[in-house]
Specification:
The chain is mainly α. The chain is built from 7 helices and 5 strands. The strands form 2 sheets. It has a 3-stranded antiparallel sheet.
Length: 184
């Protein structure tokens, strides 16, 4: 990826700050090509945030490139882990993560995550529970599900105690993405 590879939106619309995006991708490319394994991870890519500016880069294109970059870092981590510890150790590692996820999935609908504090915004439980049902089907029956599908899940907003707190749900989704990328 090279600087300026993304299209910009019109000067009236907002997009990701080109300088921040170019700097991040330049750094990520250097780390991937020359840096030692472990100096940047898929989670680092997934959690990067860019400022929104008028005339910035098209967000969908940058987000798609981030998804591909995350998958590349996860694949490199998996290859290094397998080289150092063997395939059986990798599968045991994934199994541990999957069991942690599955423990949360075993909770009843509406009770999988804590509500937000006070009147803070949260996620609509029915939307989150629907994603959880898809994960259960994946783990129990091998129903098709990809990391991209989990990553792109959207949840309506629900204010107050009737919702799920965003932080725990986001962490759960991130772990599900890691597990799915680990087996893809």
């Amino acid at each position: 990826m090279s600087d300026g590879m993304f299209r910009t939106v019109s000067g009236l619309r907002r997009g990701y700050d080109p300088d921040e995006v170019d700097e991040f991708f330049s750094h990520a490319r250097a780390v991937y090509e020359q840096g030692p394994a472990g100096t940047m991870s898929g989670a680092d890519v997934r959690t990067v945030a860019f400022d929104m500016v008028r005339g910035g880069y098209v967000t969908a294109a940058v987000d798609a490139a981030l998804d591909r970059l995350e998958a590349a870092f996860v694949a490199r981590h998996r290859a290094q882990f397998v080289a150092d510890n063997g395939q059986d150790a990798w599968m045991a590692h994934l199994g541990t993560q999957a069991r942690t996820l599955y423990g949360r999935l075993g909770r009843p609908d509406g009770d999988r995550f804590a509500p937000p504090e006070g009147r803070r915004p949260g996620y609509e439980p029915a939307d989150v529970d629907e994603l959880c049902h898809r994960l259960v089907a994946y783990f129990d029956t091998g129903a098709p599900l990809t990391a991209a599908e989990v990553r792109s899940a959207t949840f309506r907003r629900r204010n107050g105690r009737n919702g799920y707190a965003e932080g725990p749900v986001d962490a759960f989704v991130a772990r599900a993405v890691e597990v799915l990328l680990g087996v893809e």
